[in-house]
Structure formats: structure tokens, C-alpha cells
Amino acid sequence: MIKAYKYKYNNKELQDELDLNWYDYGARNYQANLGRFMSMDPLTEKYNFQSPYVYAVNNPIYFVDKDGMAPEDFIILINKKGAGGNGHMAMIYQDKKGNWNYFSQGATNGGKGSISMLSGASVEGGVDNRQLNVTKTVVQRDKKGNPILDKKGNPVTKQVTKPATKSEALKMVGSMYDDGVEFKTTKQEDANIAKGAKQVEADHKSGDSEYNIYTNNCTDAVQDAVQSETNIDLPVDVNPKPNSYFKKLKKNAKKINNTKSTRNKPKKKTELHVIKPML
Predict the structure, then answer these.
(1) DSSP category for residue 220
(2) CA 106 centroid distance within chain
(3) For the chain, what are the domain ranges?
(4) What is the sign of the dihedral through the CA atoms of 231, 265, 25 and 8?
(5) How many whole angstroms separate alpha carbon 169 and alpha carbon 27?
(6) Residues 218, 114 contacting (CB under 8 angstroms)
(7) Which of 68, 165, 273, 278 could form a disulfide with 25 if both were Cys (CB 3.0 to 4.6 A apart)?
(8) What tens digit of pLDDT does each residue of 38-86 get?
(9) 3-31 confidence digits (pLDDT tens)
(10) Dihedral angle of Cα 55, 56, 61, 64, to the nearest 10 degrees
């Protein structure tokens, strides 16, 4: 007897036991007719701004949820008024653990185009590359989940620092930037972008690379961090002004995102056929 082919919607295996008609996405089971997962997101604490049952961050037009886990992406940001109206560019990106990081390069002397002008920070080497964390006050609980009370009957609280979620990361940098463009990535690309960002930071600290408003500014740093260890092909622009480059990024974002499924495929080796001369 030939068994029915079970790999159907999004090439996921149909779970037809008990007539549930769920699809196995790996981390969770998905019910296509409802557009919802049937179990909670295992990373729900990092995505507490949305329901733990939504599919593709409730935005299936933009995202594809391949395994029921977290989406991968990075966001390039722009402060259009920065650097005397020429713009200041930065980005937030995920590392291999899915934690959000902030990356920015600028002059450290407080002049136009500098990080210190934007955020009041003096950053060695001109690069600010750090994980974004949030500190919250939470109520302490006993093993049964009940609040622990002090002698006056008030809940005992403590400060807990955790990696920022995507929405929290955007709120943290939102006061410095007025627009952004989002790019889809894979987990490996996230890890490689983190590696590239660390290398840019290290080159500045060692003196191998120096900030230059024309040839090595905030735009160049973001490009280097993203492209040095990945096959993500960002557009080229000879205009050194970040605002000009950001417009080109937005224009090409859809095209770049459409390459996610193909840019990481290994390239076929070209065989060289040598024709021996006849003697």
C-alpha cells in the first residue's frame, strides 16, 4: 500500500494523527487554516510584545517562519539631521544567540558626524558596538509561583537585566534615529555580521582603521560590518553622505531581501577541460 505524501504546505510534514491536520515546523506545530501555531513560542520571553501563538511575527507578507523560532534580521538606521544635515548611519543586529546589538561609528571629538554628538558618549576608536540590555523590576516568587512578601506584606522585588527584545531595542535607539530599513538574514549571517562588527571595532581600537568623514565614515563602517563576512550585497554609492546612501538602501531593500534564499548556496565549481593538441 502506497502511503500519502505528507510534505505539503511550506514543505512541512502534515501531522494527520487524530485528524488534527497540523504541520510540523520543528519547534512547534502549525495549523494552516487558522494561521496560528498550536503551542507557545519557546522564545516568548524575548517577544513579549506579541501573542506567543502568531505565525511569522503576525506579518506573513514580509516574514517566512521556517521553524517556529525567532526571525533573523538587521536594521540599518539613519539620523537625517546628523552630521550637519548629511545624516548619521548606524544599525542594530542580532548575534548568533539572537541578542540585539547596537553598532555605530563616528568621530570621537564631538564634531559633526560623531557619536558623541548624537548620544553624549565618548567612544574609543570611534566605534560603539554593544549588546542592548534592559533592566526591569520584577517581583520575587517562591517555588510555587506565589509572590514573596516582606514583613509589611509588600511584594519583595529585585532588579533583573535581560537582553532587549527587538521592540525594546528599537525603543532604546529610537530617540537618536528617525528612520530605518530592515533586512532579512539567516542565523549564520547574523553570526557573521556580529563577527564583522567586532572586526571593525578591533581595527579602530588598534589604529588600523581611522574615522574619515569622506572615505571611512559611519556608512562605510556599516557596510564593512555587514559585507565582510557575508554574501549580502549592499548597493554602492560614491556619494559619502549617509542620507544619500540610505535612500538607495530603501530603494533596493526588497531586491536584497529576495536574495536571502539564494545568496548562501555554495557556488558550483567550474570544471576546466583542457584540450590536448593532436600530435
Answers:
(1) H
(2) 21
(3) 9-58, 73-134+165-257
(4) positive
(5) 25
(6) no
(7) 68
(8) 777 666 665 565 677 776 666 665 455 655 555 668 999 999 998 888 9
(9) 666 666 666 777 777 677 777 766 677 77
(10) -120
